[in-house]
Write a structure and sequence with these properties.
The structure is a homodimer.
Chain A: H1 13-24, E1 27-28, E2 42-43, E3 63-67, H2 68-85, E4 88-89, H3 99-107, E5 113-115, H4 118-126, E6 131-137, H5 141-153, E7 158-163, H6 166-179, E8 185-191, H7 203-215, E9 220-228, H8 237-260, E10 268-274, H9 279-287, E11 294-299, H10 311-322, H11 325-328, E12 337-348, E13 351-354, E14 369-374, E15 383-384, E16 390-394, E17 399-402, E18 414-418, H12 423-426, E19 431-435, E20 441-446
Parallel strand pairs in A: 3-19, 4-11, 5-6, 6-7, 7-8, 8-9, 9-10, 10-11
Antiparallel strand pairs in A: 1-2, 3-12, 12-13, 12-18, 13-17, 14-15, 14-18, 16-17, 19-20
Helix pairs in contact in A: 4-5, 5-6, 6-7, 7-8, 8-9
């Protein structure tokens, strides 16, 4: 088991505390989605003291909620994973964009945060993060000026972004000169997959980008190689793994090419891959690589913390099949994010309309999945939704729950749906409840999309 | 042409002014998506004075923007439509959830606003609206308590919600008693379509709901009939229109049934349908109905103000084919909402990756449609995107622009995409720019989702 630095030096504890204090005094009232409009206005920090329970009908529906026990479990799971693999974690902040969850992730031993935009980097820095990887090209003048402003405001911040073309390198060089950066801009060479997203596909593109970097060494410092393998997903798990394996080989080939040219300007070389689907493969494969400089393997899984009830949960079956026996004892990641809604109409046999729609829950990969039902005032506790129930569609503010014609479900019954792909549920809410396993509200988190 | 009341009595001008003043001093800085992170923090009201231009690279990309000229045109179009038809408009506030756009709609002669939830009603009321139609069932205790709180805070507010079942009526009655409402809760009978969403499908359901209302007359006042016809959409426009026509006939049958039972408790009866696809048919068909009480026809189109570049634009072709010649002289609604993004990578022939993803633009009905291109520092003005270009997919933060292998497009070029279904773009942004036709930023609006 490799020894590793588990310090929180990717975060500034005083800045975390200040950020949490600031959002904690944020006003919460009836214009906050999910908060009961008849209660007096409160602050975010005051929500836990209101004695709300999501099953008792204290709130309007829908509400989004995070189960505290699942968040804690997933954080511990990831800590153990990192200890097992020696990898470092910079989870993607775009998933939650939540200062409170960033603070939780800092406590989970994260080495920093990943972001996709300068605005997200600003939120991460304001939340106390001092090691930020922008897993994207900075291409506009305002991006580079924004990064410069961020580095002036947080002189202890370490910030990287991507390059994948000579043209991108030259733009960055030109903008960096104009932005008055105090030092060099740190960049990672992005390698991509044919038919994929950004990133050099071929070694001649890698060479051209390295050539441009060599010409722009006065303003840019190459400090690693990055890729995103997470988009590989078909019905054939083994074919997917072969494809990801071959891609990781290409990433390593690119890193070796840069190393052999002495293109890396930093003392250690970052090797980073993203996604929540193959982080075990990434951690193991990248750990084997030997360059002339020390390497650090960084994974960027953003969804480990909340997991989900379908897409990532299915993917976890594959991860479980790949990891060593010792790791499997850590158990599985657990879904933490749910949306409770209420049956508002039973207009036809076999159909219930729920108070939840595209404005409230993810629908980009799968529709929400009914997991529990509860009849307020009658049931002692939620029971599993019937296996035949499914959300067959959503409008902006309504969901269509298809069910058996004789299944018993009434107006006023509560349905908890699990989420597939948490990212696009988080950005539908500015305030998300935290709850105990009995659905008592213990607090809330905010988002800053 | 029927005479009509065009007063703004659905809105309180002093409350509008107060709401605009309040959001106008809201802080805008680098944590606001779309705002340049290197500029000093400002207020919403200060944005217009910064001299930003969206083509000059003053901002990060993506940015969402509303063309002021299109908003003005669409507002005038709707004013004329209302004058022609004698219908009243309560546009659905869920589309934009923007106090500034609500104020604009008040000025367009809207009679009030439609909402889907109590939280949306709170935002509408805080924005100065004093006539609110909740086009949804209130089914939770907190909903009714919230409505009661809202009515206590705004004693001059007129507020309606829907009922579509005896069970829903009894719940409302029970909750209304507990919530301590000063007077009766105003409700509309909702009629629905077989295979559709909420609403009574058959006359026996209508009768059962009316029976329950008669028993709960102490707390509930039936004041009209409502439906939503907007989900009818197939390739066959004529079949769709026949289906909508038959459905409107059923709505009228339900209204006549209630009228013949003297079930309406108000002096006038509201007849209301929603959606932005058939509002011309609704206005004309409902204008013909004669009951024993005066009727008022209310349409609820939420998308007229911003229109779009695909879904509603195609639908408008059908509307144009149906309306009288005199109305066609009003011209067409124009798309007002766009997202500008930047080419960040050209990794393969025929593929450009844009800085825009599912976090930034609608994808629930169609993917964004490239409409203009612009090369900063080179082009004098934007030119039309090539007709073969299309966004073939989006990830959270990236779009895949498919193009010809030889088409010229570089890293740093700007692409404006039109939107299909504006609702799900609005809720991705807390601040949306307002711009002149030369893309100079004249101000911004906020959203409160």
């Amino acid at each position: 088991m490799p020894s590793r630095d588990t310090s929180m030096d990717g975060f500034d504890q005083a800045a975390i505390d200040a950020a949490l204090a600031k959002v904690g005094v944020g006003k919460i009232d009836g214009i906050t989605k999910g908060f009961p409009a008849h209660l007096p206005a409160t602050t975010l920090a005051g929500i836990g003291g209101l004695g709300l329970n999501l099953l008792r009908g204290d709130t309007p529906y829908p509400v989004a909620v995070l189960l505290r026990s699942a968040l804690d479990h997933n954080g511990q799971w990831m800590r153990q994973f990192l200890t097992h693999t020696g990898a470092y974690l910079m989870p993607h902040g775009k998933t939650t964009m939540s200062p409170q969850l960033f603070a939780l992730q800092a406590g989970n031993g994260c080495w920093g945060l990943t972001v996709a935009t300068i605005q997200q980097a600003m939120v991460a820095a304001e939340s106390g993060c001092r090691r930020i990887l922008m897993a994207n090209q900075m291409v506009s003048r305002a991006d580079v000026a924004g990064a410069a402003a961020l580095l002036r405001r947080c002189p202890d911040l370490v910030f990287w972004s991507y390059v994948d073309s000579a043209e991108g390198v030259r733009r960055l060089h030109d903008f960096a000169g104009a932005a008055g950066l105090g030092g060099k801009l740190r960049v990672l060479l992005e390698v991509g997959m044919m038919g994929g997203r950004t990133g050099c596909r071929r070694m001649d593109q890698v060479s051209a980008t390295l050539d441009a970097l060599a010409q722009c060494a006065a303003s840019l410092s190459l400090e690693g190689v990055a890729c995103f393998e997470g988009l590989v997903h078909s019905e054939d798990a083994q074919a997917d793994e072969r494809k990801v394996g071959a891609f990781l080989d290409f990433v390593i080939e690119a890193a070796r090419a840069a190393d052999s040219r002495s293109a890396f300007g930093s003392e250690e070389v970052l090797l980073t891959a993203g996604g929540s689907a193959y982080f075990d493969m990434v951690a193991r494969r990248f750990a084997e690589i030997r360059l002339t400089k020390k390497t650090r393997v960084v994974i960027r899984s953003g969804c480990y913390l909340t997991h989900d009830s379908h897409y990532y949960d299915d993917i976890f079956d594959r991860i479980e099949g790949r990891i060593p026996e010792a790791w499997r004892r850590m158990g599985r990641l657990r879904p933490a994010l749910f949306v409770w809604s209420m049956v508002q109409s039973r207009p036809e046999p076999g159909l219930a309309i729920l108070t939840m729609g595209k404005r409230d829950a993810s629908f980009d990969i799968d529709l929400p999945r009914p997991v529990w039902r509860y009849r307020p005032g009658v049931d002692k506790e939620p029971t599993a939704a019937l296996s035949g129930w499914s959300v067959k569609g959503m409008n902006d503010q309504h969901a269509y729950l298809a069910m058996g014609a004789d299944d018993e479900l009434r107006v006023g019954d509560l349905i908890a749906c699990g989420i597939s792909h948490p990212c696009t549920t988080f950005d539908r809410w500015r305030m998300i409840y935290l709850a105990d396993d009995d659905w008592s509200v213990t607090g809330a988190v905010t988002t800053q999309f």
